[in-house]
Amino acid sequence: MAKQKVRATRHNGRKGENGVFKAGHNDRSFDVDAAEHIDPSRSFMNVYWDMYQGYNIAGADGVRPERRFSFEEIEKAFYSNQFGDSLDAQEEGNNILAFMKSEGYLQFEIGKKISSTDFYNIYVSWCEDNLEKSRASAGFLHYIKENQKRYGLIYDAKCIGNRRGFHNVCKAEFTPVAGKTPFD
Fold it and tell me: Domain limits of the chain?
């Protein structure tokens, strides 16, 4: 599995001249020994590590115990603890997130394709089934395009012939409910 970069900035919604503010300046996937501006002899004082796994001080023999977590794991835990509640609250207000996490409507598979229109119609169907108010198609598609990497999708203006759409996703096969439902 490819190593993912951890971003350590809580996005504040600001936009710059090149679009949405990117948190790349806080990328922690660097080699401490190769960074000129970091003093490796002081990295043992990292508060994230100490906060989650206690002090890691060398014993009488001068050997420090092996760290239980990588810096990326510690930083992810810290930001989950610090910002998890506010992110969850944001997700509650965004039913597209709930739709993308739901089961039975979409099938994520490499090589599959779906048109933007069909994708939106499946979302509207999910909203009706879950008593949610659907967003406008432009807002829905903007969200999916902005978050395509998160879901492993690839937007293509000519995905299916000359129709816009997404790669690596398709409509899931419908499995009918066996027997009567409470609504019959």
Answer: 15-87, 95-171
Is this prediction's pTM over 0.90?
Answer: no
Q: How confident is the model at residue 115 (pLDDT cuts 50, 70, 90)?
A: very high
The arithmetic mean of pLDDT across residues 127-148, rounded, is 92
Task: State how far the Cα of 93 lies from the Cα of 32, in Å rounded to an integer.
Answer: 39
Work out the end-to-end distance of the chain between its first and last CA atoms, rounded to an integer number of angstroms. Answer: 47
14-33 tens-digit pLDDT = 555 555 544 444 445 556 56
Helix 137-146 to helix 116-129 angle (10° resolution) is 110
With 0-12 / 13-18 / 19 or more C-beta atoms within 10 angstroms meaning exposed / middle / buried, residue 182 is: exposed
| Neighbouring residues of 152: CB distance < 8 A, sequence distance ≥ 6 | 108, 168
Tokens of 40: 């490796």
Evaluate if residue 165 carries a pLDDT over 80.
yes
Query: What residues contact residue 155 under an 8 Å CB cut-off, 6+ apart?
Result: 144, 145, 148, 164, 165, 166
Residue 134 to residue 26: CA distance in whole angstroms: 35
Question: Topology of domain 95-171, per CATH?
Answer: Arc Repressor Mutant, subunit A (1.10.10)
Give the sheet arrangement for strand 154-160, strand by strand: 106-115, 163-171, 154-160
Q: How confident is residue 82, by pLDDT bands cut at 50, 70 and 90?
A: confident
User: Cα–Cα distance between 48 and 26 in angstroms, integer?
Assistant: 15
